[in-house]
Amino acid sequence: MAHDIPFELTALVQRCSGPRSRAWDVTDKAAEMERRGEDIIHLGVGDPDFDTPKEIVDAATKSMTSGRTHYSPIQGEIALRKQIASHASGLYGQTVEPDRIVVFPGAQCALFSTFLCLAETGDEVILLEPAYATYDAVVRAGGADAVRIPLDPESGFALNVDQIQAAITPRTKAILLNSPGNPTGTVFVQSAINELLSVCHQNGIWLVSDEVYWSMVFDGEHHSPLSIPGSERNVVVVNSLSKSHAMTGWRIGWVIAPTSLARGLVNLVQALLFGVSQFSQDAAAFAIENDLESVHAMIDTYRRRRDRFCAELTGIKGVNVYRPDGGMFLLVGVGDLGMDGDQFANELLAETGVAVVPGFAFGASVEKFVRIGFLRDEEIMSDAAQRIRRFVENRDCT
Ligand SMILES: Cc1ncc(COP(=O)(O)O)c(C=O)c1O
């Protein structure tokens, strides 16, 4: 029998394989149970039940049949970058030029590439915890250390600029923000973002803002460091259509950066990707240009799911609901039930078929939480809430 040659994965790849890559174990188990015919409600991985609006699919089909199946310019199609620039200029109230935009196959790849350009061995990047599960790997791949700052659940996971400022050292290269947040759903207020940006300016630090949930703000408005004059010097916005337009599988994202960084990103894209598919980009340009009714309706649906699901969970003894202002997730504290999030998620799945994500995926400070996504229609979410209620009440451990 042939054996693989002895080898060790490179340090870069090993740094991408920390304990948080286990975050999806419960989801994988749920998929396996479903294959065996069990009745599963998936509220784990953030891939919602909405299909991409038909008009966008039609735009892609038209593009494909007209022969748009070749290599694209490395930086991204100019028509798409113009649409992104015009949309961003409206959203932020600051002019954004297409040459500051680089198109990627999704925000994930955009984040990874941005940090490969900005931080390496000897550098530190500040992450706010709870943090999206892949942030550690994204920051650490290039050799930088991730410095994690826990946000206080009792403040609604609000941005605490004093705490961040105290963590800055001469090694700090960047701070990564995410608002509306995954997994918290917290929308940071503009005044705190302004304060943080001036701290970044004073210390010569980058502020990277992951805004993939920008359109999903249910209470108040989306806020961004890019709406502050002077931000074009050190703010990088990462965004995508995955969530805003139910386009997770199309792999369309982008970075808005100072032109010097954009040029570096283009060099990286050339080596890594050699561009993004033309027809996906054409569909994305269509999606941004047209203010589609179906997209608005989808956001309203998320709001209704949030309202009803939070109401249905509130009042279950031992379950602490942290109502989100935006995004597609809810963090629920389960520590009062005498277990951590991993135990809760595994037992909940085994006993009720509801799949959620254990909090350790988002940092040690939320080990006693689970993340639940508003990923199924209201009736199914309501069924999940009842199953969670029965699961908790049957344990009788409060
Ligand atoms: C906060 C956050 N950033 C980035 C991503 C990656 O998004 P994309 O599908 O655009 O790669 C996700 C996906 O869930 C996310 O939640």
What are its keywords?
single chain; 398 residues; alpha/beta; Aspartate Aminotransferase, domain 1; Aspartate Aminotransferase, domain 2; 2 domains; 7-stranded mixed beta sheet; 4-stranded antiparallel beta sheet; 13 helices; 13 strands; globular; binds pyridoxal-5'-phosphate
Secondary-structure blueprint of this entry?
Layout: H1 11-15, H2 25-35, E1 41-42, H3 54-65, H4 78-92, E2 101-104, H5 107-118, E3 124-129, H6 135-140, E4 145-150, H7 161-167, E5 172-178, H8 190-203, E6 206-210, E7 235-240, E8 253-256, H9 259-272, H10 278-289, H11 293-313, E9 320-322, E10 329-333, H12 341-352, E11 354-355, E12 357-358, E13 369-373, H13 378-395
Parallel strand pairs: 1-11, 3-4, 3-5, 5-6, 6-7
Antiparallel strand pairs: 2-8, 7-8, 9-10, 10-13, 12-13
Helix pairs in contact: 3-10, 4-10, 5-9, 11-13
The structure holds pyridoxal-5'-phosphate.
Characterize the structure shown.
It is a single chain. The protein is built from 13 helices and 13 strands. The relative contact order is 0.17. The protein has a 7-stranded mixed sheet, sandwiched between helices. With 398 residues, the protein is α/β, with parallel strands linked by helices. It has helices spanning 11-15, 25-35, 54-65, 78-92, 107-118, 135-140, 161-167, 190-203, 259-272, 278-289, 293-313, 341-352, 378-395, and strands spanning 41-42, 101-104, 124-129, 145-150, 172-178, 206-210, 235-240, 253-256, 320-322, 329-333, 354-355, 357-358, 369-373. The structure holds pyridoxal-5'-phosphate. Pyridoxal-5'-phosphate binds at residues 46, 106-108, 132, 178, 182, 210, 212, 240, 242, 248, 253.
